[in-house]
Amino acid sequence: MGDKLLCLSNGHGEDAIAVRILQHLQQHPQGPELAALPLVGEGRAYQHVPDVPIVGPVKAMPSGGFVYMDGRELWRDVRGGLLGLTWAQWRVVRQWSKQGGKILAVGDIVPLLLAWLSGSPYCFVGTAKSEYYLRDEIGPLQRRSWFETLESWSGSVYLPWERALMRSKRCRAVFPRDGLTTERLQEMGIGAYNLGNPMMDGLEAKPVVVDGEQARSLTLLLLPGSRVPEAHRNWEQLLQAVQGVQRVQNNRPLTVLAAIAPGLDLEPFTRALDAYGWQATRKSVPGIDDDAAQRFSFNQGRLVLSQNAFGDCLRQADMAIAQAGTATEQFVGLGKPAIAFPGEGPQYTAAFAEAQGRLLGQSLILVPGPEQVADVVQRLLQDPDWHQLIAENGRRRLGLPGAGERIARDVLQLLFGVE
Fold first, then answer.
1. pLDDT digits (tens, 9 = 90+) for 239-250
2. What DSSP state is assigned to residue 353?
3. What pTM, to 2 d.p., does this model score?
4. Could you say which of 61, 68, 216, 301 is the most buried, measured as most Cβ atoms within 10 Å of its Cβ?
5. Are 168 and 220 spatial neighbours (Cβ–Cβ below 8 Å)?
6. Helical pair 384-398 and 326-333, crossing angle rounded to 10 deg
7. How far is Cα 391 from Cα 324, in angstroms, rounded to an integer?
8. How confident is the model at residue 67 (pLDDT cuts 50, 70, 90)?
9. What is the distance between the alpha carbons of residues 336 and 322, in angstroms, rounded to a whole number?
10. Domains of the chain and CATH, by start
11. Nearest to 84 by CA among 53, 118, 59
12. Under DSSP, is residue 402 helix (H, G, I), strand (E, B) or coil?
C-alpha cells in the first residue's frame, strides 16, 4: 500500500501498550508498514514485535524515565546526553513526516508534541493522565492544600496546551485510558474515544484446577517494582508484611506469589528470603506456568519467585501487597484489592502512592507501612461487600480487555481509511 506508521512511546509501560496495538496492526492484511521509536530507555518491549524496526537512536537514561519526580534526576539525564538524544530523535520524526508517514503517539505530552511538530496526521493514546486523579463519578476529590487544588485549575487533568495538540485537525483521534477522562475531553470538544486500556489485554482469567490445600489457602501477590536498588529495598518491606499476615492467619495455609521483573538478579531476593526463614522446596503451586520459578516454604506458607509468569501470578492471587506502578494497576483492573505503602523511592514514594490512590480509588488501600498490612488483609477477608465494591471499581477504572485490537481498528480507519 505504501502507507507507513511510526509509533512513538516514552517509557517501559508505554512501550508495552504500543506493542499490543502494533501486534493487531501487523495482523491486518491491509495494515501499514510499521516502525517504532521509543523515546525513553532501550525499548525492550518492542522485541515482542521483531518485524517492527526501531528507527533512530535509543539510550537508557540515569533516571530510568522518572524525571518528573525529581529535578536532580532530570539534571542527571541532561548530563547523560538527553538533549542530544531528543534532537536526534526529532530529526528522525521529521524525516518520517517528509516521506509521507503517519504517527501513533503513546504516552504523555512528549510523544504528542513530537507528533504535532512533525506536520503529519496522528493519533494519540493517552496513558499517563486520568480524570480520576482529580475527580470520581460523584465529583471533585477533596485535596489537602492550595497547591493540590491548583492541579485542577484548567478544568481537566489535561492542561490547555495538551488539549490544543489534541484539537489539531491533524490529530485524528485521542484514546484516553478510561471512560471518565474520555467524557471530559469530549465535553471540551476533543475527538476522544473510550476503547479501554491495552494494559489489561492478555490478562483474562483462565480456569485453573487447584488442589484442596490451595482452595483453602489465601494467595497473596508481591509486587516490589522493577527498578534496582529500589526493588530490593521494597522486597524487604514486603517480606515484613507477609510475616505479619502469617502471624494473624496462623491457622490458614498461605500462598505467596512474587512477580519479579525479568532481567533483575534474583540473588538479593533469595538472600532476603533466607534471612526471613524461608527454605527452598520442590513443591509446586498449580496455575503458575514457569519451569524456572524458585519455590520456598515456611511453616504453613509456600512462596513462588517467578520472572516468567506475570499473568498467572495476577490471575491466581486474591489480593496484592504492592509497591509498583503499572503492575498494580493491572492487578486492580482484574477486580482485586491491592494494599500499598510508600517505599524510599525514587519511584514508589509517598507522593506517588497518594496519586496512585486517587487513580485507583477504593481498589488501592494505602497504609503507613508493612506493620498495618495484616489488619487490612483480615478486614478484607471478613467483608465480602467491600470485595464486591472493589471488583466493580477496578474493572470500571481500567476497562475491559481487548483495547489493543479496538484501537488498532480505529487507527487503520481514521489514519488510512482502511475498514
1. 999 999 999 988
2. H
3. 0.88
4. 301
5. no
6. 120
7. 20
8. very low
9. 12
10. 4-201+401-416 (3.40.50.2000), 212-398 (3.40.50.2000)
11. 59
12. coil
